[in-house]
Amino acid sequence: MKRAHSELTMASPAGRSADLRMSAAGTRAGPSGRDKWSPETDEKGKEAKRKGGGQEASKHVTRFIRNHAPTALLSVSVAVIVLTLVFHTDVIPRGYMNFLSRTAGYERFYPRKAPIALKTIAYDIRRSYESGSSLNSKVPHGVTTKEHISTIPIARDIIDALDDSIRHDFTACGIFHPKTSSCRMGMLSTALHCFPIALKVYTPLNAAVLVLFKRGLFLKDPRGMLLKLVKSSVRSSIFFTLLVTGIINGACGMRQLLGRETYFGYLASGLLSGLSVLVEAPSRRVELAMYCFLRALESGWDVGVKLKWWANVRHGEVALFSAAMGVLMTIYQNDPTTIGLTYHSVLTRIFGRN
Question: What are phi and psi of 167, to 5 degrees?
Answer without folding.
Answer: -120, 125
